């Protein structure tokens, strides 16, 4: 029975899901240990660091991973070596990282004073964390494109396992500096890359004719816009609390703890995502409208169930869990968790519909929807309400508007499924979305 169930899932789902599961657990352990050892002000600084790292890191470098994986996979079917793709991907990631570092250094004083309570070392940790994610996502693109899913899952698992081990050591040693808890976000991904480096080095050694830049950059711009804005929607609330109410250090830390809890369904969806997009893309390219719609309906049903169960659990247990697990201040109630749970459900819908638009080669439509969501999020954030309520409502309305716009755009796009056509953008296999 188990063997039959395993045969139903695409290759790599189990390996990637296991790695993601450990990485997700690491997020809870990381923040829980930090919450019990740091002051409210220091935990607030760590929360802001966490939100910036995963907004920019996943938002910018995940598209690089996906494009590298897409091109490597396409070349693999033609018997072409992956080395030139890795070289271009690494150069692109390095260039993007360099621009980000220059901008961060230029704003170092403002970031130190406004976001990190005068601790300039946190800015250094921010740069190191972004560099670690740049290296990790680039190498994962190669592993994914070559269908080396056990290696891919191993990198995720090593990253997660080390986070758990390192923060446990910090907790046992009684470390009370947010810098060290932030430094774990630098060390763990880099060691994960080092452990899974052998197949990447073999790929790098398989050289050939350089890949044209236009092949890598063709869909990257719109994909990056969508990826970055999706991370803004899900992560910006913590940063906004710190910007709008600098003295309210309790709310920023409590909000991050609450968000980590209510977004548990996103980790589950991430393991499904690796199989969703190829399935939709295959049905679209062959003109199989019935399969396309059936897969979309089933996926929406699954994520809706996940979202409702997660929201119900968060509403009932959320206030107690954030106090018990993360030692968070008692500033969020059941109503706050209801709004955050509804927001996460809407965000799940947006993720599924966004993947559907990508399967139809509608990169621009997906980007337009995320832009609309972020505009609404910004508008709601400026409404004169209590800070915690407005950032929660901003997350909810931004996600809901994004999903609604995608649904509207998708109605006009599904006609493309009726006419078989080769997919110009074969889809990558990496999981994305959510906080880590």
UniProtKB/TrEMBL annotation:
Key word Transport present: no
InterPro entries, sorted: Poly_Biosynth_Transport
Compartments (UniProt record): Cell membrane
Gene Ontology annotations for the cellular component aspect, listed alphabetically: plasma membrane
Natural source organism: Micromonospora krabiensis
Membrane topology: Multi-pass membrane protein
This protein's UniProt keywords: Cell membrane, Membrane, Transmembrane, Transmembrane helix
Transmembrane segments: 12-31, 43-64, 85-109, 115-136, 148-173, 179-203, 215-238, 250-270, 300-322, 337-360, 367-387, 393-410
Keyword Transmembrane set for record: yes
UniProt-recorded name of the protein: Membrane protein involved in the export of O-antigen and teichoic acid
PANTHER family for this protein: O-ANTIGEN TRANSPORTER-RELATED, PST FAMILY PREDICTED COLANIC ACID TRANSPORTER
